[in-house]
Every structure is written in C-alpha cells, then in structure tokens.
Design brief:
Elements: E1 2-9, H1 18-26, E2 35-41, E3 44-50, E4 63-64, E5 70-78, H2 81-90, H3 101-111, E6 121-129, E7 134-139, E8 148-151, E9 155-159, H4 162-165, H5 177-186, E10 200-201, E11 206-211, E12 214-219, H6 234-251, E13 259-262, H7 267-279, E14 285-291, H8 299-309, E15 312-318, H9 322-333, H10 342-353, E16 358-360, H11 365-369, H12 373-400, H13 410-415, H14 420-426, H15 435-441, H16 444-449, H17 457-465, H18 471-481, H19 483-497, E17 502-504, H20 510-516, H21 532-539, H22 544-547, H23 558-563, H24 567-575, H25 578-582, H26 587-598, H27 605-620
Parallel strand pairs: 13-14, 13-16, 14-15, 16-17
Antiparallel strand pairs: 1-3, 1-9, 2-3, 4-5, 5-6, 6-7, 7-11, 8-9, 8-10, 11-12
Helix pairs in contact: 2-3, 6-7, 6-20, 6-21, 7-21, 9-27, 10-19, 12-18, 14-17, 17-18, 18-19, 24-26
C-alpha cells in the first residue's frame, strides 16, 4: 500500500517544479512511511510514498520498463501478478524485480489499455507513456483504492489524497455548494464530486487518459446483476460461494510482512477469518476493539469466534480522546465525512498496526448479500407496488403523507408515491438531513444558490442502469455504486492508511462479486433472513448460534460524546460566529438543533456530528469562506 501524486503539463516546455512535487508526495507520508521516489521529465512529474509489503528489497517506485519509456506509480496490490508475469515472460518480457508493480509496466506494453482486465486486486495507478506523451490513471473495479484528479488549464494533477492535489498552485481550493448539500443528505460527498469544485474522484472501474491536450474518461468494467438466477440451484450456488471465498482469501494472504484480520464477530469478518484459518499455514492473528459502553461493545462475539477458530486474538477496550481525535480525522478525510464508525475503524486499525502491517477486512458483505434493513424494506415496497398497482401505490403514498413518521411503516408507505428509483435513493438519507430539514437549516441566499442541487441523481441513475428487474438486485447495485464506494471503502482506506496499515477486502474480489450478482435475490434475503447464502456458508465453520445473532453495526456512542467531552468543542465550532458569517446556515436553526440535543429533548446526534465534521473541514482545509459560483464541477 502506498501513496501516489503527480502532475502532467500539456506543454512539455512548461517544467515541473520538483520541490512542489516533493511537497505533494510528502503530504501523504502516512500512506507510505518506508521510502519515497520521484521521476521528473519534460512536463511530467511522478511521486511515490512506499509502505513495503511485497518484494521489500527491489520494489521501490517510480518504476520503468527496460528502456525507461514507460513509468508507473502504483498504490495497492495485484494478487494474481505471478500468473500475469508468467504470461508476459512467455511473450518475451524480462523482469528485474519480484514486485507486482513491474507487471503493470510490461502488461501495458503487451496489451495497452486493456491490461487492466488481467489484474485481480485493488489498485490506483498512474502510468506515463513517454513516447506518446500520454498519462493514464486507473482505479480498481469497485473503488477500494481512492484516486483524485484535477484538470487545469496547464494539464492534470492527481493523487491518492486531495491534500496532495491542493499543494499544486494551479488547482483552485474553491468549494462546492452542491457538494455541501449532498454531504448533509448522505454524510459523504458522492463520486465523482469532492468538496472542492475543481477536484474530482475517478470513478471505480474507470480510466482517465490525458494526451494531445485532451482528457477523456472511459469505463472498463461494470457489475452486471442478471436477474435470471435459479433458486432451485441453491446447493450449487453455496458450493461455488465456498470456493470463491476461499480463493479470494487465499490470494490475499500473500505478503512479506506480518498479516492478520479485523474481527467483530459478525457474519462478514467471521467468514473471512474462518477462510483464513482454512488456508493459512500459520495461526491467524485477529484484532478486535470495543468501547466501555456495553451497547457499543462487540468483544464478546469476537472472542467467541476467535476461540472457536483458535485464533491468536488481540482485544482492546477503546477510551478515545475524542476531542483530540476529531480534527485528526477531518485532516485525513480531506473533505467532510460524517460516518461516525470512522472512530472505531481508526482504533481497530491502530490496534492491528501494533501487531501486523496487513489486515483482512470483512467489508462488502452487506452490499452484495443484502445485509441492511433497507433491503428488507425494498423487498416489502416492491411487493406492495405489485399488489396495489401504480395508481393504488401512489394513492397509498399520498394518504400516508398525512401520517406522522412516528407511526411504524409510515415512511415506507410514503415511498409508494415515489418512483422505485427515488424511493431507493431516499432510503440512504434516513435519519440524516432530509430535504425539508436541510432547507430549514440553510440561509435564504445559500438555499437560492443550490436550488438545482440533486444529491440523489447518481442513485436514481444507478437504479435505472441495473439490467435486472428485481427491486432487491437494483438496490444492491445502487449500494455498490454509491454507499460502498463513498462511505465504507473510503472510511476503511483513510483510517487504515492513517496508521500505515494495509487493509484488504476479500469479499470484494471481483470474481466473487461477479458471481454474487448472478445469485437470485431470493437466496440473499429469504424468509426475512438477511445474507441467507453467506450465513449458510458460515454455518459450515462456526456454531449456528453465532451466525444468527442480531446485526450490530460498527457504531460509536456519539450522542453521549456530544453531550459530554465534545460539548465545549461543539459550542466553539457551531456558535462562535464563524459558521454564521460563512452564510451557509441560519445560525438560529443550528443553535436550536444543538440545544435540543444537549438538553435531551431530541436526538440529533447524526446531524450534529455531520455539522461538527463539516465545520472542522472548513477551518482546516477550505480555501475560501464562500462557495464557488454554481456550475458543473471539473
């Protein structure tokens, strides 16, 4: 795992400022504390920070081919690089290292832009083709590794993190009002936007090419939910799932440094650890954390699984200095991010790093195998639409609008008045700042500025793009394209890299998830049992009582923190006048939210956490107090 940064000037006569390139690269030292490296030529500069995992002796970057005409900087791992290398050696290529990085260079020489089709792993890389003066940026299929870029008048600036890119004086630090609106709706800024108007995320499964003064982006992979699976083949699906999970885990055990796993005791992490025990030649090391508050402590479940599988288990009770931690998290995320599970993710990463350099994670199980409550709701709404018909559903939805949301099922009934795509999208904002609450929070001027903002456009587009007609398949596809990428994977990458730990996610192996997309939705959510097929797999390895325990998210006691140790910080951030003077919010509405939560009359913990992280970002990172003029982001 590493950090990359670089700049390409369209005009080769415009030199690269080496000191600026060093500053861009040094900004992500935490991603790669072991070494740095640079390549500078006419109009191109590549920088790299290395966390040594494979080929510790000869794997430094930037790395080139034999005649130094093709260069690469690479963040991630290509787990099947040995097989790809064999194919390349048969084609006449010669290697001088044992690293997966060198495979990228020779694969590009042999297969061009389609080389990425051969790679099985997590990756974000920049490849420089010197003879053609061509820069290629590539992000892995599901977005495990981040990659940002900015197109300027001079060319393209890129990096593993935004903090590298904004070191370039050619890149504007203006922020986006539409991104702010989306953040409050979703608790993250959705791809391809960032909070900076002129910095973008490269979407997963896409490649950017810059040459001849032009920049183009193309999709090289997508996940296809077929919707034509056969439920009568349940046992065959189970056997194939078993084989693919085992293979995905086995591939991710490759490392020249100590390796372990995160273990919460839930379905996904337990499935990964169980497969590690079956495939590893040594005892598996696991790391688990919990809080003093038993409502936010899963150590009992993790301990039970670790004992059953005879792991070397390391447990820690976290007592966070949350006042000191939050500014640090804001700095690492580079843009507002309000999923409070970032806190335990940071601490489990830090705990793991005391023992290992690589940790396997169970992320991805919920999004591919229907693990969230909203997936059951999606199924219920689809059934209701079939029974009621289009007009009946709309009528029921309008009538439900008269019911208070405190009535169980009222929200789902209201969704029947929406299109299925819209209803699916709005489930991702439940409990956050929904449309009416956001509007009540904004100042009149800011509300006017962002009147055309649509945080859910990407969700609807993904729903409509899914070829399956099954509502649950479509909801899972939306999850993979949105929440998984911009919340779950972003959180895991930024928090693990904050402590220089490589996190690997075997449940998102692309062959495994391509298979998952062919499994009938009825074998994912069956008789109200979520992740049905994945649970059946796990029952082969651990006691059924553990498999069937209620789902418990990776949560933190944010409500208590806000009323307790964070209260002075909240007062200072939200009430000292800076927030009011920025002109985004009606400061009276913000003060009312804080007062109601502090006094215990309302629970606004998610909303307040989002406002606190937003204000921390403004004070640490924003380049201006006012948003840039509304328009399409670069």
């Amino acid at each position: 795992m590493c950090g990359i940064a670089g700049k390409f000037n369209f005009d080769p006569a415009r030199p690269i400022d080496r000191e600026r390139l060093v500053a861009m690269t040094t900004a992500v030292t935490h991603r790669g504390p072991d070494a740095d490296g640079f390549y500078v030529s006419a109009g191109i500069g590549l920088g790299h920070r290395r966390l040594s995992i494979i080929d510790l002796a000869t794997g430094d970057q930037p790395l080139a081919n034999e005649d130094q005409t093709i260069w690469v900087v690479f963040n991630g791992e290509i787990y099947n690089f040995a097989d790809v290398r064999v194919d390349l050696e048969r084609a006449g290529h010669r290697f001088r290292t044992h690293s997966d990085t060198e495979v990228i260079v020779h694969a590009y020489e042999e297969w061009g832009d389609r080389a990425v089709d051969r790679f099985r792993g997590m990756f974000a890389f920049a490849l420089w083709d010197e003879p053609r003066r061509r820069l290629v940026l590539v992000r892995d299929r599901v977005g495990i590794k981040p990659l940002y870029y900015s197109v300027t008048a001079a060319g393209v600036t890129f990096g593993s993190e935004i903090k590298s890119i904004v070191e370039d004086p050619d890149v504007s630090r203006d922020w986006s009002g539409e991104a702010l609106d989306a953040y409050l709706a979703l608790q993250y800024v959705p791809c391809p936007r960032t909070m900076y108007r002129h910095v973008s995320k490269l979407p997963p499964g896409h490649a950017l090419v810059a040459e001849d003064g032009h920049v183009s982006i193309r999709k090289y992979w997508d996940l296809t939910f077929t919707g034509d699976g056969d439920v009568s083949r349940e046992e065959a699906y189970l056997e194939r799932l078993d084989a693919l999970v085992t293979e995905a885990v086995r591939l991710r055990l490759l490392a020249d440094v100590p390796l372990g796993a995160f273990l919460s005791g839930g379905i996904d992490s337990s499935a990964v650890v169980a497969a590690m025990v079956e495939t590893s030649s040594s005892r598996v090391l696991t790391t688990s954390v919990g809080f003093d508050d038993q409502a936010f402590n899963e150590l009992e479940y993790a301990r039970t699984v670790a004992r059953h599988l005879r792991c070397e288990a390391h447990e820690e009770i976290v007592k966070p200095d949350i006042v000191d931690l939050l500014p640090k998290l804001a700095w690492h995320f580079d843009e507002p991010f309000a999923d409070s599970s970032a806190v335990p993710t940071y601490y489990v990463s830090a705990a793991a790093r005391r023992h290992v350099t690589v940790a396997l994670s169970g992320d991805g199980g919920d999004e591919l195998w229907a693990g969230y409550a909203r997936h059951r709701v999606e199924r219920w709404e689809a059934t209701a639409r079939r029974w009621l018909g289009r007009s009946g559903g709309r009528l029921a939805g309008r009538l439900a609008g008269r019911l208070p949301l405190t009535v169980k099922g009222a929200r789902s009934l209201r969704h029947l008045a929406l299109s299925p795509a819209d209803a699916c999208a709005h489930k991702h904002a439940y409990g956050l700042f929904e449309s009416d609450t956001r509007q009540a929070l904004y100042s009149d001027d800011f509300a006017l500025d962002i009147r055309d903002s649509d945080p859910f456009a990407g969700f609807r587009a993904a729903y409509d793009a899914c070829p399956s007609t099954d509502a649950l398949d479509r909801a899972l596809y939306v999850d993979v394209k949105t929440y998984l990428v911009d919340d779950i994977l972003m959180k895991v990458d930024k928090m693990s890299m904050a402590v220089s730990l490589e996190a690997r996610v075997p449940l998102l192996d692309h062959k495994l998830i391509e298979f998952a997309a062919t499994v009938p939705a009825a074998l994912k959510l069956k008789n109200g049992r979520s992740k049905y097929l994945l649970r059946r797999l796990l029952e082969r390895r651990i006691p059924k009582a553990i498999v069937d325990r209620p789902k418990h998210g990776f949560e933190a006691p944010t409500g208590e923190w806000l009323r307790g140790p964070l209260a002075p910080m909240v007062d200072a951030l939200l009430l000292d006048g800076h927030l009011r003077d920025r002109g985004v919010f009606d400061h009276r509405a913000v003060a009312s939210l804080w007062r109601e939560h502090r006094d215990g009359t309302r629970d606004h913990r998610h909303r307040l956490w989002g406002l606190v992280m937003l204000e921390l970002w403004f004070r640490q990172c924003a380049g201006s107090e006012r948003p840039a003029q509304t328009g399409v982001a670069a």
